[in-house]
Design a protein that fits this description.
alpha+beta; Alpha-Beta Plaits; 4 strands; globular
Length: 84
């Protein structure tokens, strides 16, 4: 799982909802959230692979500013029950 955090200039929930529809296909295996109360209008994306370049391009094409602040790959482990 990759977590990417962006600063944006998305100012209201209506704009965020429209963008969520555009971003869903590239983050279909993860989650996209906005924190519009934060001064930096934070967007957080969890996905199986990094999608920052695509996200920045999509927001730019829609007339928004978007800058990657943070990226971290996390490991996900499946717990397998060992037969007794």
């Amino acid at each position: 799982m990759v977590v990417e955090i962006f600063t944006t200039d998305v100012s209201d929930s209506r704009q965020a909802e429209v963008l969520l529809k555009s971003l869903k296909p590239i983050a279909a295996d993860g989650r996209v959230t906005f924190d519009l109360e934060d001064i930096d209008k934070i967007m957080r994306i969890e996905s199986q692979g990094g999608v920052a370049e695509q996200v920045i391009r999509i927001l730019d094409e829609d007339g928004y500013s978007c800058k990657l602040l943070y990226r971290r790959a996390t490991l996900s482990y499946e717990i397998e029950e060992i037969p007794r």
